[in-house]
Amino acid sequence: MIHTQIAAVISSALKGLLSEHEVLQLLETPKQEQHGDVAFPCFTLAKHFRKSPAIIADELKVEVTSDLILKAEVAGGYVNFFVNQDKATEQILTSVLAEQDSYGSQPIKDEKIVIDYSSPNIAKPFSMGHLRSTVIGQSLAYLSEKNGYEVIRINYIGDWGTQFGKLITAYRMWGDEALIKKEPIKELLELYVRFHEQAKSDDSLNDDARAAFKALEEGNQEAKALWSWFREESLKEFETYYDLLGIQFDSNMGEAFYNDKMQPVVQELEQKNLLTVSDGAYVVELENLPPCLITKKDGATLYATRDLTAALYRQQTFKPVKTFYVVGHEQTLHFQQVFHVLKKMGHEWAESLEHIGFGMMLVDGSKMSTRQGKVVLLADVLAEAIKTAERNMGEKYDNQIDKRSVATQIGVGAVIFNDLKNLRTHDLDFSLEQMLSFEGNTGPYVQYTHARISSILEKGDYHEEPSTPYPLGATAWPAVKLLDQFPAIVQKSYEQADPSMVAKYSLQLARAFNKYYAHSKILGEDEGLQTRLAFSHAVSLVLKESLRLLGIAAPERM
Ligand code: ARG
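Above: inputs. Below: predicted complex with arginine.
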């Protein structure tokens, strides 16, 4: 990497006053081309040398030499370095082409990261919030792996709670097996809604539901069979979304998995004198936070009790160095409480648990609400995205490729990219039209650039053999520099748990390449052809890898 190499020579010119790493942290990338490729600010050195930054810069300019540096200029306390483009290009392309899809990967660390994501609720629709969790979690999983960690992907299914008593009661009254088999979530949701409607005027239904849930908790065969059937049917439906999105989990251990594991945790809390009685319920009092409810008056456990238990279980089972909970902002307080309780229990690893929150999905600028009929169903969204993508692809693709499967990759990719290109903490606007454009800041645009390169390589008969380097010219330089930055982007986006860095990077790289493409005839004259192709190939490798890190496919043709 250019920055690392320049940092090394600066550090040695400074006789180790700043380590290579410290210099690297200080290096900046000038916004304007006329200020060179890399800038080193001299302000922090002024005190040590008792000289003005300008004078230090003047001295450094002379002392820092390397065959990678073409020239250096001093401006406003900075040394601006201009890189020898041909030399740097040769270096950068060589490493991308040698490492291929492991370019930017960190060495394997033998450390595990648990990622808790997606986690929809049984018998409830897969919400847009769950979609956000799914795609963000998936990208974090890839990013963690790329940074050398082993990842345990956990889908913490919401498969327990009093609502199952209601569902069982409703099913006994109005349920239809065949309908549920056909459209499980839709039918189960209808039963649930109908239950609430009727319970308004008939309170005995609530008693029935409570009894049904109690039976379920006590392991009653019939109740359990129904619950497990609802669970399976719902999971089957979720599985169709996961298939489309290309997502696989290592485990579907949901809330119910912890039913028989909670008692010891409650006991541990008691032994450590952390439980207080409040209104017949047991709570853990917390500093600066509302108390965390552990068991209700009737002894029933809660969402937090299950999360505490799950955290303890995972820590014991997988011994992760880190755990990410990818869940919307609205659960921030819940996770603060859970983490805090674990700390009070004396578990130091609680510091390694992290809530990765995210904003809401907005439709036409406002929050989605079931009541106003503004729900957007994932199944509809994906189907619509795929249909639109297929239409956009036009006729000329017929018979050439499996149009439907590419349309799926484009449609699904568009939905994922639209989510991940935004800072996850922000709310997100949902517009199918925009996300599917081949031109804007979209997934299809990046995919299209990748596919275009594939066809260029084919036409140019690219052989992947190293060729005598040939200068690519200044129009390629911005894209080459971006290639060089990829490993740093991969690392930073992992550290900040922010896939949007990779998404934005892929757009920049695609744009830089397309600019080059517009200004130079890649397939023109023979002289330098293989170098131009090698460069194009390097760009396509990094685009494809960026898309993969986002969980998006890169079709060869579109
Ligand atoms: N099922 C929950 C919901 O839909 C999300 C679970 C998140 N993960 C966790 N460990 N609490 O709201």
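The chain has a mean pLDDT of 92.
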